[in-house]
Amino acid sequence: RCTSTYFATVRATNCAGLQTVVSSAALKLCCAPPSAGTVLLLDAVGNTVTYIDGRRSSVLDDLRVTWSPFADSCSIIWSYTVTLRRVNTTASRASWKVLWSSPTLPPNASRTLVPAEELTRLGDGASCEVEVTATSASKHSVSARAPLVVDRSAPIVRRAELRWAGTSPDEWRSLDVRDVATCLPARVETFELRWATAKDAQSGIATSRY
């Protein structure tokens, strides 16, 4: 029965009727894997990382995998391993290419560094997965994962222009900011800056500044 504890007992009796009894250590039957923790990728200052540009930088040199403790109500967590895989959506996870695996980590571990040299080899758009696997003393395992995507392409903004009021209230004039040969009229005190929505196919737009 799952979660039950068992002992093996040996009883020896001699011809005079004297007995000696010895018992084994307790053996607990655990049938379920541990419960998974949460995996995060963090930079040196503790910001969550999902996208990287793939160039050697302080982000790559200090990219840490952290995880909240996994738990096992039947036995104990025996070890952790961390694996970096290249995602292939057309194949099963078991066949995804392993780029790096950590050595076996002790049960009190909660973080490790991802080697930067493995990440700098990845091309634009490469999608990866960092997997943390916990193994219990009963040899059951469970994994939790965090995504990591390489984005080497800058965002695209197709047009930006300045607009200001003309000589009449209904008249507006505009200037494409790429047209460096044209200047704003001296009388213009206020103007609008308008731009087409910025786009980024890989990681999306984080901020827009002007």
UniProtKB/TrEMBL annotation:
It comes from the Eukaryota. This is Fibronectin type-III domain-containing protein. It comes from Calcidiscus leptoporus.
